């Protein structure tokens, strides 16, 4: 069963520090949707390296192999989990764009 939770700003740093430890072997897809650009895929199932929130810079960073995706001045952060596993992070930024970060297991070779 999926569970969606709004994260309070004062928990973002510790939450994402903990999540980054669980991303080993995951892949990430990043979709950006706004009125100005429509919906665009910024990253398509790259190996995930981590997620961090820098309080001083007010910056949420999603690191993947070959890509650092920065979200400046996030306003709202929702996470969707299934059990203990993070499925999706949905971020509304200062411009009103919605950035959807999806995670999935890396396929076995």
TrEMBL record:
It holds the Pfam family DUF5335. This is Uncharacterized protein. It comes from Duganella vulcania. The lineage of its organism: Bacteria, Pseudomonadati, Pseudomonadota, Betaproteobacteria, Burkholderiales.
